[in-house]
Design a protein that fits this description.
globular, 15 helices, 404 residues, mainly alpha, 3-stranded antiparallel sheet
Amino acid sequence: MTLKTTPWAIFKHLSWVSLAAMIGLAVFGVFAIYSATYRGEDLPNAPFYWLQAIWIGAGLVAFVAAVAIDYRQIGKWTWVLYSICVLLLVIVLGRHAERYGAGRWLGIKGFGIQPSEFAKIGLAFALAYFLSNPDRDVRSFKTLVLCLLMLGITMGLILLQPDLGSALVLLPMAAAMLFVAGIPLRYFTAALIAAAIFGSVLYVNLLGYEAASQRLHAAAPNKETYTRQVFALERKFILKPYQWERILVFLNPERDPYGWGWNLRQSQIAVGSGGVVGKGWLQGTQNVLGFLPRQVAPNDFIFSVIAEEGGFAAGVLVLIAYAVLLLNGLWTALSARDRLGRLLATGITVMLLCHVFVNMGMTIGVVPITGVPLPLLSYGGSFVLSTMVALGILQNVRARRTMY
């Protein structure tokens, strides 16, 4: 059904509560990032908060575009958009800006973007458009194979960067979309069996890595030699040494409290010491004194900074804002008038839920540390931009449902 209105009429039908939650989180994030980079009145503050504010401005423009352009019209360009996302992921493997030991950014005159963040939306559109085709038999094995092929290509390219956290977010997103599309449950049962087998292989691998690292630790003359030898184990096991160490620290937080377990230990101290109302803005000792590492405080561990300075009260407010966004996404998926909108809303909502759960969970030790950022709060231009685009698409689907 074609709308006989201008594209701007859509803005009368937005969820204003959800919009307020998005803007509120984004603004709050700028103040949190300022605090996360604060080192005292006598020391200059890093410009991350200004950069984040600029990205939020760009994100608002992208949000408006994502709302104004009918998602069904965007769907017609799905394969072009998805191909561009895949191409960027391929390019980033060959010519990239390397940060923190991983090549995830494309650098353009000192300006970096992270293609994996946009690839999540690209994959969501690809799966939604493919599965919403009225001529598609969603119960056929061929349909499942083609969906898994799209998922595998995207995940594989992201894993090669390496970016395990972003790659893992794609799994529940795709699974939820396949379930809503009507893929037979027997395929999910087979997937669970395959996951159990792979998990067993990983566990055996984990035991092998732990035994090898213990032997090296006993024989190494100093920590530098041990670290070099541990990283030399990379080719012998499925995951990289730092990934195994994160899992081992998650299983046993006392394994290496002054090494691999430092970030988790300091994050838990920060969250726990905040109490009910926190220590006050710019007063977080774990952050200001550098116990919470400065390279991760503004991004992966921004919630730790918020919880220390704002306490339980600030944490609850953040959770309420996210609940508004996620419930809006759930309602949008349930009330969408077509399959494309329903699947898009499902994929985007589950993607955001995974980011919120994993990030907050890793700051308190509920899940292993994976480097998954917190939507709208963590520092990161590409992630802010892609998140606002994703939220714009949700508003797009919801508002156009009310305009019919």
